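To close the section, here is one more complete example, presented without commentary so you can practise reading it yourself. The ligand is NDP.
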Amino acid sequence: MLKSLHGKTVIVTGGSRGIGKGIALRFGEAGLNVLVVSRSEADAVAVAGAIGPNASGFAADVSTPEGCAAMAESAVDRYGAINVLCANAGIFPAAKLAEMTPADFDRVISTNLRSTFLSVSAVLPALTAAGGGRIVLTSSITGPVTGYPGWSHYGASKAGQLGFMRTAAIELAPKGITVNAVLPGNIFTEGLEGMGADYIARMEASIPLKRLGTVADIANAALFLASEEAAYITGQTITVDGGQILPE
Ligand code: NDP
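Output:
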């Protein structure tokens, strides 16, 4: 099924840890050239090393236009094209509304939502030059579907990504570019581990499939959306949450 992706090039933002690392490893395994992007160069290079000679690490802050431009330029310089963008970088610091400062709010919106616009804009010329491509966003169930205390800024950023996606999908369809999003439930990553054992136990109990998701669960959905088999899917979401959002 994934033969069409062999030899193509993907940029994975936030590819140095957690879900992004899982996506980068999976796409590397499927034979794509992978540019692994994070602010830490050492972490990005380490993941690229684990993938093999078809991958490189690159340090960029995707909440800045300069970072996104440099990332796109680096992919084109190294691999000659960009075919897929996995816009995955994100942060989820908790802050209840009563304590949340405007700076807290702006930082989450900038890293999670503004980065989506900036990274898509930066790769657009290369995707267009390639005659089309795939954009896969990592959103969340929190915001688009549910809420969670401490995450009003995060929920706003993740719901905002879907608003962006729907119009981008319409605008970019004539260029042969599809734009879709994966909505992870609770996925076991270092980021989630920081939420504490109580949170994790509560989540496991509330999930019909009775486990947290793995990064591979998300990577497989992203890989499908990037494949030729998903050519007629755009502006859509795939929820990968073990059934968590289903009503009892
Ligand atoms: P992690 O904290 O494990 O990893 C985050 C990644 O993003 C790291 O590679 C980090 O590297 C990078 N990153 C953060 N800020 C920036 C930035 N400004 N520029 C470039 N890279 C950046 O998070 P997860 O893997 O858990 O989450 C990944 C995505 O999945 C996020 O968008 C998150 O919202 C979403 N998600 C996660 C869920 C989960 O259960 N884990 C559930 C639902 C959605 P560095 O710090 O070096 O920059």
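Once you have examined the tokens, check your reading against these statements. Residues 48 and 208 are 35 Å apart (CA to CA). Residues 13-14, 16-20, 37-40, 43, 61-63, 88-92, 111-112, 138, 140, 184, 186-187, 189-192 surround NDP (CB under 6 Å).
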